[in-house]
Design a protein that fits this description.
Order of helices and strands: EEEHEEEEHHHH
Distance between the termini: 39 Å
Length: about 170
């Protein structure tokens, strides 16, 4: 995928959950809006598990994408650097010449969502292989300033929609 530097993927790594944990485990139910919905977090990791049981860590600006079950739910990671993603989510980190808000909007776009749905593998639990997901040809403008404007526009639109849902 020419638009991402890195994919953070914890598949196959189900960490032990802790009642006293302080690190939220972001699951698919938390995705689908501008940033993860922490009110839907039901599991936490303790410090030891967080530091040793994960393959890699998510960062602010990463694009979170669900790959199992409700495939294609997307959120843009906020500044909660102590959070972890469940094994049914992959996180993409934008390359330097790409704006993460723009990539969030791109992954959320209906046309690109349809492209991802075409490679879903049917099973008891539908899933998508990350290796296939990164091979999808996405339409991406190379103009960084244009990316920033488009990304900001869609983030603001998501925020307005979220506000209206609670009114």
């Amino acid at each position: 995928m020419e638009i991402a530097d890195k994919a953070v993927d914890n598949r196959g790594k189900t960490p032990p959950i802790s009642d006293e944990g302080t690190h939220p485990l972001i699951e698919v139910a938390c995705l689908g809006s501008g940033s993860p919905d922490y009110s839907k977090v039901t599991k936490q990791l303790d410090d030891s598990t967080f530091e040793t049981a994960l393959r890699d860590y998510i960062k602010k600006g990463d694009i979170l994408f669900s790959t199992v079950g409700s495939i294609g739910l997307v959120s843009l990671m906020d500044s909660t650097e102590n959070a972890a993603i469940a094994q049914n989510i992959v996180s993409f980190r934008a390359k330097e010449k790409y704006d993460s808000k723009f990539l969030y909007a791109m992954f959320s776009n209906e046309g690109n969502q349809h492209k991802a749905q075409r490679i879903v593998m049917g099973a008891v639990q539908p899933s998508i292989k990350v290796s296939q997901l990164v091979d999808i040809e996405y339409f991406v403008t190379q103009n960084f300033e244009e990316q920033k404007k488009i990304g900001e526009y869609f983030i603001k639109l998501d925020n307005i929609i979220t506000l209206h849902q609670f009114l």
